[in-house]
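#struct-pred

JT: dropping the chains for the assembly here, can someone run the whole complex?
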Amino acid sequence: MRTSTRTFLSATVLIGTLVPAACGDDTAAPAEGDGQTVTVYTGRHYGIEGVFDEFTAATGIKVRFTTGKDPELRERLVAEGANTPADLLMTADAANVELAAAAGVLAPVESDTLDAIPAELRSPDGTWFALSRRARVIVSSTERVDSPPTTYAAVGDPAWKGKLCLRPSTHPYTQSLVASIIAAEGEPAAEAMVSSWVDNDPLYIDSDTDIYKAIVAGECDVAIANTYYLGRLQTEDPAFPVAITWPEQNGRGAHVNVSTAGITTNAPNPAGALRLLEWLATDGQKTFSDANFEYPADPAVQPTEVVAAWGPFKGDTAVIVRLGEFQPAAVALLSRVGYE
Amino acid sequence: MIAWRPGRGPGWALLVVVSVVMAAPVAVIVWSIADPSTEVWRELWQTRLPGMLVDTVTLVTLVVTGAVVVGTALAWLVSAHEFRGRRLLSWLLMTPIAIPGYVLGFVWLDTLQSPLGARAVRSIWLCAAVLIVSLYPYVYVFAWSAFREQSPRTVDVARTLGRSSFTAWWRVVVPMARPSIAAGAALVAMEVLTDVGTVRLFNVSTVADGVLRVWFGTGDRDAAAELAVVLVVAAMSLILVERALRGRARYTQSGVRGGSVARPVTGLRTVVVNVAGWGVLFIAVAVPVVRLARWALRAQQLGQTQSISGDLGFHVVSSLKVAGLATIACLVIGTTMVFIARERGRWGAALGRLASLGYAVPGPVVAIGVVVALAAVDRRGWWPGEVLLVGSLAGLVYAMVVRFLAVAHQGIGASVGKVSPSAVASARTLGAGRLRVATRVELPLARAGIIAAATLVAIDSLKELPVTLLLRPFGVEPLPVWVWQATSESLWVQASVPSLMIVAIGMPLVAALLWSVERGAEVVS
Amino acid sequence: MTADVTAAMTADVGLVSVTRRIGARRVVDDVTLEVRDRELLALVGPSGCGKSTLLRLIAGLERPTSGTITLGGLDVTDVAPERRRVGLVFQEHALFPHLTVGRNVGFGLRRFDRRRRAERIDEMLELVRLPGTSHRYPHELSGGEQQRVSLARALAPDPAAVLLDEPFANLDASLRDGLRADVVAALRERGATALLVTHDRDEALALGDRVAVMRDGAIVQVDRPEVVWSVPNDEFVAGFLGTMSLLPSGDGQFEIVRPHQLELVSGGLDRVVEREFRGAVWRHTIVRTDGTQLIVDAEPGRDLEVGAMCAAAVRPGHRLARLSRP
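RK: done, full complex below.
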């Protein structure tokens, strides 16, 4: 018994020395509430550091951030509860921020400055605000397609059988597109439409960039993809042989999703978070959107040159605040029709 | 010796506490099964679940078969034949283990896309091929160490009894190495069951992929967790089936010492041996590394050699810190458990398995389980001071231990188990207490095995993505996070620098692993 | 072609000028040797003398650098081991641990049909006096039993020759004698031609129909046991096979004398410096006036104490072998 006590003690000592060593740097401590640092969980990471640097330069408030996937960051916020170090949650998708709001981890904000964001691009209760818009549109080969489809339904035309590229249903972009179709046309019509896509035997590629490349390679002629990837590709090669068709221009407009931000319920530094949010909605709009070739949420702010060259379009923004509501139905629908 | 029974002594208490702490994140997730969401299940069953099951079974079968064939055959080539460059080849054949599957996946996807076409490349066959190439080293290292333990006399006898060198290998050498090969195969099966990166690239819908699909798509964590339980059950069944298959037969020869069975090869056989060995290396290592290196040069030209969080040095320091602490923690906890558990028979073994549960669950599920479990502790304020566990380095290291303790526990257990009882008895009669025997006799004798276990854990935690992604503290950004940030936007050029760095750090670890196996490390029980 | 080469070429096992070089070392050096039909040839020598390598050359597990190996009169120098029809028995028996006893014995009976294989397995287990053990696993048997299974396995396919590499070295002395007798009996019953490699001179002398003594890769002497023992070719053979002393015979030559060939007489110029009890005799070491030592056995009752003065003389009727001083 004595020797085993010694084993126990030595093991305890070893673990005891290890754990404090691992905790040694106090990065896990909530940020001090002196307004000098804002802590951000962000599901959007492309070019984000430049945006925060600019904010710090403008305000003197430091930003520390961690990147991750939208749903995982949401789970983490829920689990942390009152102890969260996060002041601001940023997502790359409206449905995910809606789910976070529904889980109670986002606090409503009132601010006149944030009125710069159009009403349909923020949650009615003020828990989250869109910062940039992304259009999910129909893209086609400039070399092989003369009259591309002009509606999402037309993508299901048998003419495109074997010539269609789509993003798998695992991606939020696909899910929110289908959610918007359910919202606009009802579930039976949406199901018929998505079924017609599936009947065209699409090539599923889990990367919009690769979808564009597949069109160039002749793997498919038509696809549904986000515009900002084309922005990146056209910056490298202005003659990139893929064209955008704005869908549903005679109806509700092209499907639009948003990058969003919301202040957390238990933010240690809500004032700093509000400063950042307001800055992103105003002075930071251009940098934030341009970093990823997106459309600013504030219609008064002009997009970057490459993006502006695609011309104006009508976007289906009315549905944005309800995308989260329809997302589960969209996921179920995609499963039912056998969308990969 | 004292007769131990469950429920007695501080050692027992420690064992129970450690096992419970290690199993807690999985338990939190599995708990949801108590209240099954039947509706989700019905829908799953009517839609994707049958396809997921078929894909999972197909993929696991293909990859395990492939990895066993490739790994065993290569191990035989380098242990039964003597040729120029044998030692170098036997070392290099282990190196794919340092290349994360998600890196190998995107490199090969992009490489094969142009010749095969984007449609043809996204198939379960190519997915299986990539997984085989990245996972065969698990079988290879186990088979290789098992072959080394065998007496060359056994092959000699089989030869004189009328079997050619191949059939002697097939009928005698391989069957005797079966437990080791099976253990390697089980690891491969686990890796395939829990893979969520590579399968997605190739549009293969496995159950693990389905867990994320349900969870991220609907936000229904409980339904996702229930699906994850399918994986845990599958993994447990694998282990039990293997145990049952062994039956009464034994696979070791008493009083037999290993020795080199290598024979010189000549003529055509030299060509075959070299082509097979270097050919696999070409596919598994040369092509990906060259591809990555060319992208990295491009990244250099474009000035994209740093991430949004910092430069290469910063990420390397993060990776080394996390992998180092995770390895030390796994070793300390694994060793403690081995020494306490072995005197406690079946109960000890059961607790050991309980603590190893995290290895059978996909990384993202473990990550969420850890967040939920640690956040519960944080909320209750059990931990002193302002420090929170979620988002701390300790929390991340804990999650790594939950995920990889099985690797350390198994390896250390097997090596300590091999220490001669007479050495222990001599030490005890010379007045050494149990702790002194452990630290002065058993651990030094089992050193090679412990180093092997440590390097495996280090390599695994260096590559681990989902746990790192969700639990890393501010200011700690290990390399896989950078890879993920780039690959999630299909920016292969930017992903190449951190990917190459992971491989570079992994290489000396692979060397250490082989060094220890050559010195008789048991990599499995 | 010399007579021994002709003999080697037609014998069951034959080696002609076989050399095996590893680097600069001649592990087996120009060996010409034959094992005759149904003969048990004991190959004896100190460890490292190349005897195991010689056995591996015969089995085909290693290739000679030069020379010819024949089995049953056929040149097998370049034939793979699986086509040579030799049986192997090792010190560490090397049974296949994952197969039952029956399947171990049947391992070499690939070309037999089921029924004949089962019959042969039973027959072999009967032969080695282990009937009914067919379904057991090797680890369930004792060491001696495992070695007998190993012999049964080697004999089952009716090999041209059985090669035994130190088969009894791992066993207790008490088990060893019984097993030796059983193994020799089994070999004789099957009419097998066998080569037994051993470092134990008593084993070689007791079991071999002929004994070949090997040293530094070369065969120094081959003959019937009593001949190599009593008429050794050189001092090495003499010394290796048994305790002996050298007596100068005056003409620059020496005679080899075994301890039992000398008689100890009390009183004289020599002195007993050491003695030990060996059961039937006391063995004395005596120092002669010229400083040389002699080993002398004497029955109890005729023994002398350490320190006693004595003289040693060759017993009447004993013929001593002569040697030139090496």
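JT: nice. Chains A and C do not touch (no CB pair under 8 Å). Residues 1-33 of chain A have pLDDT under 50 and may be disordered.
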